[in-house]
Predict the 3D structure of the following.
Amino acid sequence: MKVQVCIIGGGPSGLMLSQLLHLQGIDTIILEKSSRDYVLSRIRAGVLEHGFAKLMREAQCGERMDREGEIHHGFYIAHDGKLDRVDLHKYSGGNSVMVYGQTELTRDLYEARDKLGGKVVHNALDVTPHDIDSDAPYVTYRTGDEVIRVDCDYIVGADGFHGVSRKSIPHDKIKEFERVYPFGWLGVLSRTKPVSPELIYAKHERGFALCSLRSQVLSRYYIQVPLTDTVEGWSDEAFWEELKRRLPEEVAAKLITGPSIEKSIAPLRSFVAEPMRYGRMFLAGDAAHIVPPTGARGLNSAASDIYYLYHGLLDHYKKGDDRGIDGYSQRALARIWKAQRFSWWMTTLLHRFPDRLPYEDKLQDTEFAYLFSSEAAQRSLAENYVGLPF
């Protein structure tokens, strides 16, 4: 089999790139190790920056998003028993974010690929890139007892942090930067009315909490927990009680509880691999970088990778201009490190670190006081939260 671009990974990044390239007549195939049902069962972030929403529309996948997604012009930060609102619309020059679940977004992208007859291979086992530093790279995968070879011009590794793509690059050709945080997020999805029409980030002496939503009948809540905790150790009742403790009384009194329909613990990590290109293979999304979910940058950072890669490949095939793909890594990393900084800042601002010094507690309090007394500080927060320009 021969295609122009072979994409490893059938999550939102790979699907989005395949869809955009297909619309421009560029032939792609997606190799995904899991089933479609498994991919669609993963519960992930649902806050889309305005640039991501625009990219979905360009990919002709934004109709349901625009119909069912919710535009949020701000969010709340709870601290010291009170709520302060960050006015995104005011401080970002009229921009906003879209709340639309990643599962729904992925489903839309799959349906778009099906509609166009896109080549998506699920349950592709033992996916392996070959000769990525040559002019003739190829990828092999196994289905049953058959090994299939895909020859291509370029390979895109969009197969996540644990995927094969980054691991295929020689160790001496890539540098990794990482910070693992000493806590995780226990998340619960419940079929209940959200406690607030806008997200609430909460800083509390017992730990961080977040009140989020997927729709007006589907809520997503999180609390900070030690890495030693397990899902089995948290009953629904214990979760709701702890969440209430970390919210202002006025919010806790309105909280509607119910059975969890999904419960999981996600460790927090910051990670960047440089460069994001080796030979004829490009890395995108979680294969190249991870951020804590605090600032809602993970999926959105992946979208900026796809934007740069799409335009670079488009210029290569349509104009014979390689400046976009040659500069892809540098351009993508410049924005990624800004997202890393913002996510690190939000995480540091809102969480309680187990080994924190009293000096650092005072700095955290001072940071809050400054944030809500300075329009410049709120503009910086809003500008980063709605998304920096691609």
Notes: The mean pLDDT is 94. The chain is about 35% helix and 30% strand.
